[in-house]
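anyone seen this seq b4? input:
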Amino acid sequence: MKRFAIPLILLFAALAFAAPAGHAQGVVKITVEGPIHPIAEEYLARALDHAAKTNAAAVLVVLRTPGGLVTSTRGMVEKILASKAPVIVYVAPSGAQAASAGFFLLQAADVAAMSPGSNTGAAHPVTVGGDKIDEVMKGKMVNDAAAFMRSYVSKRGRNTELAESAVRESKSWTDQEALKQNLIDVVANDEHDLFRQLEGREVTRFNGEKARLSLANAEVTPYPMSLKQQILGWLMDPNISFLVLAIGALALYAEFNNPGAIIPGVVGLIFILLAAFALNLLPIRFAAVTLILVAFLLFGLEAKFTSHGVLGIGGVVALTLGGLLLVDGPIPEMRVKLWTALAVSVPFGLISVFLMSIAIRARRNKVTTGEQGMIGEIGVARTELAPAGKVFVHGEVWDAHATSNIRAGESVRVRQVNGLRLEVEPAERQQTLPAS
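predicted toks r here
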């Protein structure tokens, strides 16, 4: 038995160690499209961690982006360079772009690939919001971005000088131009073509280790965003964030004008918190937030004072400017569009003024219920008031006390309510003109 025990133990040990190797045939696939922001960075980080835990053969990042935030781009590049599994960045489908931040991500990959008809480059750093800066600061930004590009492109064995020109001169390339000038490794029609071309290729990892790709028969497993990432990714669109913020503010506005309604208050609070959470991840201007608050103030003043629409128009202008300037994005896709700002501001201004005017008129109107509602009402004396007696008011007979004697059948006006007794006075007789 001892003669067979040792070989069996060795066999089981070999099978145990061989299991992860067989598991390494899978490819984890994610799709990064739209602006690069903190949610995209978090999504990539989770996918790379998942690939490391499952011992995946590679991570496929299908990329399509116009650019994004520098901080998120740097974070994503760092995670790609430190990935345990080889990372393939594939600009797809045809017609897609990997501009600005996308070019940094493409160059960071172990394998850089593009689909026919795609383009990349234009990685010149842009100041947040596109504001003009002095030449010294501009030079610092460009030099820093160029050094960042050189720091890893040279280790990938690609054309460092040309890659740097995308930063300094905003150069861009088609897929064929990038392939011929050694900026990418492969041009592939689709994923199957990509894996076929990469089959057996040896890549040098950023840490200097060699890895041979075996992907021809690999099982591709899409790695989806979590529900939180999907919601925040949707809210990271500045146009959506501004719309959600406006709806939340309007709901709270309705709650303040109608205390106790509860539903508008709950909805408003949830929407504002969602917008605040998303905007906290985006570069926002606090001056724009001030403009939005001023717009609310002007809407309230328009309903209270007669300005013939001047205050309301000022509120719409302030809210529109606040929306346009709210998100300080480096690319147009990360800013609130003019039509979005107008589509939110004009209806919001009209609704706000309408709700406020209703509330103010309601506060100014005379109370028509309870004891206060009785004062000023006209009734009829059922008995002679000398000075006490009975009167008929609001469909009921009341005990009444008059300031002077009133004959039965005469009209009386209620002056005051003392418990269940009314203080009345003779109603003014209507003057009639003599017939001609």
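The chain has a mean pLDDT of 82. Residues 338-364 form the longest helix (27 residues). kinda curious what u guys think
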